[in-house]
Amino acid sequence: MSSDILVVEDEPAIQELIAVNLEHAGHRVQRAHTAAEADALIREVRPDLIVLDWMLPDVPGTVLARKLRADARNKDIPIIMLTARAQEQDKIEGLDAGADDYITKPFSPKELMARIKAVLRRRAPQLTDDLIKINGLELDPAAHRVSGAGTPLHLGPTEFKLLHFFMTHPERVYSRMQLLDQVWGDHVFVEERTVDVHIRRLRQSLEPSGHDCLIETVRGAGYRLHP
Ligand code: CA
Fold first, then answer.
1. 29 by DSSP, 3-state: which?
2. pLDDT of 94 strictly over 60
3. CATH code of the region 132-225
4. Cα(117) to centroid(ligand 1), Å
5. pTM
6. Which CATH number does 4-127 carry?
């Protein structure tokens, strides 16, 4: 499991501790010291998860969390709030601001890593290494393998990511724009019709076992995986 994680923390020692542990766990880490810095980085590359300190030099982390939750492009980024405050009321305020979880300083890096894993599994299952099976179609993220009814299927890297996303989010319809955000990530230079091209390739790759019929076109809305 390798994700892009943004650590927003103004205390250098704590930021270093978190970043080193995340990198050790195989994640790619970006660092920000203020909410403004974080905001600029998020606009450049959408992270998979944000570890967000409450007490920042410019504005409180809760303000940034609320801003992200109000923004269509960034409202789904999982956030773990980090803070020295431990009172019940503060926790409620943090969760109200849109945080997915909350961790109180001092914390053990092991606990933070476990929380990050749990939040990603819940909010972004396409980023985990869990094996998924739907109607005889099996996708193994760790081995990067797909098989249909026991037959190995050959997918390109983008089709693999696309299928992984669909299989972890069955039945829900996604627009081309949403798929670009979720599967391509930073899609500034990618056109919406690119999605159609890769959907076509994905269906072709699934044809040998007849699983191409799982990927449905929903007219005027987008695509979905319908088991
Ligand atoms: Ca701080």
1. strand
2. yes
3. 1.10.10.10
4. 23
5. 0.77
6. 3.40.50.2300
